[in-house]
C-alpha cells in the first residue's frame, strides 16, 4: 500500500525518513496520534469482548500459586514431620 497508510512496524528502515515526512507533526496531529494509540491499546488489552477458558484458567492458576505461597511454611513443616 501507499507509504502514508502504513503503520510504523510495517515501514522498512530505508523508507523511514519518507514515512516521517508524511506524518502530521503539528501539536494537533500529535495529539490525534496519541489518542489513536490509546484507543488501540484499550481495545486490545482492556475492552476485550471475547472470553473463554484462558482467563478462567489463569485466574485458577494464580489462586493455586498464591494459596501455595501462603501455606508454604505449614507445608514445609508437615513434610519434615512426616518422615522423622
Automatic annotation (TrEMBL):
**The family this protein is said to belong to:** Belongs to the ATPase F chain family.
Name of the protein this chain belongs to: ATPK synthase
* Gene Ontology biological-process annotations: proton motive force-driven mitochondrial ATP synthesis
Asked if Transport is a keyword of the record, the answer is yes
Give a Pfam family name: WRW
Q: Which organism is it from?
A: Alectura lathami
Where does it live in the cell?
Mitochondrion membrane
TM stretches of this protein? 53-72
Gene encoding it?
Answer: Atp5j2_0
Task: Write out the entry's keywords from A to Z.
Answer: ATP synthesis, CF(0), Hydrogen ion transport, Ion transport, Membrane, Mitochondrion, Transmembrane, Transmembrane helix, Transport
Could you cite one Gene Ontology molecular function of this protein? proton-transporting ATP synthase activity, rotational mechanism
GO CC terms for this protein? mitochondrial membrane; proton-transporting ATP synthase complex
The cross-references to InterPro entries, in alphabetical order and at most eight, read: F1F0-ATPsyn_F_prd
